[in-house]
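Schema walk-through. Below, the input block comes first and the output block second. Nothing else is stored per chain. Lengths vary across the set, and this one has 157 residues.
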Amino acid sequence: MEKPQEGKESIRKRAISGSRRWLIIADDFIHIAVALFLLVSALLILGRTALHFEEISTHSILSVINDVLFVLIIMEILWTVIRFLGRKSFSLGSFLIIGIIAGIRRMLMVEAHMSMGGEVSTEKFYHYMMEMGLSTITVFILIVAYYLVAKLPPATE
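--- output ---
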């Protein structure tokens, strides 16, 4: 009597195994597509950034810095996707680096707006200073977190 039940269980296990295999293939395909889109986006942004060198001005240099830092963020995300495809363990450090770069990028842009904006009202000045202070604190916290994460022993799977 147990033989038919074992047969049904075997069919069920094969079906689950086959379904899982196809879902993993689909997941990998989607991650590869995302990686390709990230790479193409980074290349297009760098191409657009090269156009900022037509005229050398404060605005064009700030645009270049902004775009290059954005490309670095995209590349860190791409690296995370590549690590996933290689079945490597999740890296919190990559996301901390992304946060640090984004915070520094924002601080540079706020400073640029303050410098290029001409006369700034007291209210606007306080707004800029508050944003700079919060960004500085955030970057500092992320750097400390990155340092602490780097000190942890590597995770075992």
